TrEMBL record:
UniProt pathway: Purine metabolism; AMP biosynthesis via de novo pathway; AMP from IMP: step 1/2
Gene3D superfamilies in UniProt: Adenylosuccinate Synthetase, subunit A, domain 1 (3.40.440.10), Adenylosuccinate Synthetase, subunit A, domain 2 (1.10.300.10), Adenylosuccinate Synthetase, subunit A, domain 3 (3.90.170.10)
Pfam families referenced in this protein's UniProt entry, alphabetically: Adenylsucc_synt (PF00709)
Subcellular location: Cytoplasm
Protein name: Adenylosuccinate synthetase
Cofactor remark: Binds 1 Mg(2+) ion per subunit.
The protein's required cofactors: Mg(2+)
Gene symbol of the encoding locus: purA
């Protein structure tokens, strides 16, 4: 069966870019289905490092067609500069397909994102400031601008007028900012039309036809399960559905077509931005994870918050996504600890809780219950098979698998394409 979803099982930055790139050589299409340039996916090929924000990581595999689906929000200037950056490095991007139904992040959406965060003060979400939330809000409010609108000036002008009508009132009267001129926005957006035209396509039709022809399609999530607008730690989330169902709506493919759902799971936990994080560390262990793991945001350059592995979250990710497999990443980062704490449950107001509480209040009160697992000191970055790993590293992986509820089918032992142990084939 040819349709796979690959998504983050925690709060993002699990290593989705590397995992997608690894499979890219064997799949026909890689599709982004939600989010926008809030994502930062790092791919290391040989001695070359690529940071992708909007483009699917499959763009680096020559045989693969990268697709930006209808569920993605697209900042045209970011897309064009990402494409030209790759072209300068010799990457052929001509196969890219962009859904005409994808919504556009306009300059005013970026302004509203930044102004709103500033206005929230202490209560801010810590967004990436890329206009993601306001663009999805316009989409739901039915005042969004879609890629296809760039090809009808009259419709575009009417839609920008409608979108700015209320926003300009809010910007001038509430936030004390200057009003945004409709003409200027329309002119800027029209300036992208010809440059984007070669990529615009009916991606829903293309993908469904590809699946009928038994082509292999990989859906690559941005962000992670706990940042999902419905299933994450609301309101400290992003404004779309990275969870598996989002692949169906965000690409226009029915759930019966999805054969496998792979959760990318870091061997410890990180988070960027505000919100609860039960296993967060504020001591030298947290500092060491950040340093050894290189835990600094690809998009905003912010330090990532770091903590131990949380099995409650992994179990939750298995459930809400119907995960069939895990890809465990960054196991190498844990080399050198004598003992590694793993959160197996929470204590909430004196009670042991095994599953993620649905109540925000309870989650804010959750304290991790740790089990200590023995560590290892051998370098594992050259390991090619599971049996190459030291016994304690094997036991760590097995323990995580047991706690998390789905088989670990691959293990990352370094950032490079070949620094991966494959246990079960994904295809
Ligand atoms: P994404 O947003 O999920 O694609 O992840 P990011 O690219 O934001 O962050 C993951 C980071 O970990 C990147 O710097 C990757 O190059 C790196 N990485 C991925 N897998 C591994 C691994 O198994 N070991 C190590 N040491 N680094 C990894
Ligand atoms: P990748 O794909 C980690 C976080 C932001 C903020 C919240 C909302 O690299 O895993 P937004 O700008 O989306 O409205 O911000 O979501 N966030 C991410 N954190 N990795 C990401 O992407 C993220 N994309 C958004 O830090 O807390
Ligand atoms: Mg990232």
């Amino acid at each position: 069966m040819p349709a796979l979803v690959l998504l983050g099982a925690q709060w993002g930055d699990e290593g989705k870019g590397k995992a997608t790139d690894l499979l890219g050589g064997s799949v026909d299409y890689v599709v982004r289905y939600q989010g926008g340039n809030n994502a930062g996916h790092t791919v290391v090929v040989g001695d070359q490092k690529y940071a992708l924000h909007l483009l699917p990581s499959g763009i680096l595999s020559p045989g693969c067609t990268p697709v930006i689906g209808n569920g993605v929000v697209v900042d045209p200037s970011v897309l064009l500069s990402e494409l030209s950056g790759l072209n300068e490095r010799g990457v052929d991007t001509s196969k890219l397909l962009l859904s005409g139904n994808a919504h556009i992040i306009t300059p005013y959406n970026v302004t509203v994102d930044k102004v709103t965060e500033r206005f929230l003060g202490k209560r801010k979400i810590g967004t990436t400031g890329r206009g993601i939330g306001p663009t999805y809000a316009d989409k739901i409010n039915r005042v969004g601008i879609r890629v296809q609108d760039l090809y009808d000036e009259s419709i575009l002008t009417q839609k920008v007028e409608a979108a700015l009508d209320v926003k300009n009132q809010v910007l001038t009267k509430l936030y004390n900012r200057r009003a945004i001129a409709v003409d200027q926005v329309v002119e800027e957006l029209l300036g992208y039309a010809d440059k984007l035209a070669p990529y615009v396509a009916d991606t829903v039709l293309v993908l469904n036809q590809a699946l009928e022809e038994e082509k292999v399609v990989l859906f690559e999530g941005g962000q992670g399960t706990l940042l999902d607008i419905d299933h994450g730690t609301y309101p400290f989330v992003t404004s779309s559905n990275p969870t598996a169902g989002g692949a169906c709506t965000g690409a226009g493919v029915g759930p019966t077509k999805i054969s496998r759902v792979i959760g990318i799971l870091k061997a410890y936990t990180t988070r960027v931005g505000a919100g609860p994080f039960p296993t967060e560390l504020f001591d030298e262990d947290g500092e060491a994870l950040r340093r050894i793991g290189g835990e600094r945001g690809v998009t905003t350059g912010r330090d990532r918050r770091c903590g131990w592995f949380d099995a409650v979250i992994a179990r939750y990710a298995t459930r809400v996504n119907g995960l069939t497999d895990f890809f465990l990443t960054k196991l190498d980062v844990l080399t050198g600890w004598e003992q590694i704490p793993v959160c197996v449950a929470y204590e909430i107001d004196g009670k042991r809780v095994e599953e993620l509480p649905y109540s925000q209040t309870d989650f804010h009160h959750a304290k991790p219950v740790y089990e200590m697992l023995p560590g290892w000191s051998e370098d594992i970055s050259k390991a090619k098979s599971f049996s190459d790993l030291p016994k304690n590293a094997q036991a760590y992986v097995k323990a995580l698998e047991e706690m998390s509820g789905a088989p670990i089918s691959a293990i990352g032992v370094g950032p490079g394409r070949d620094e991966t142990i494959e246990i079960n084939s994904f295809l």
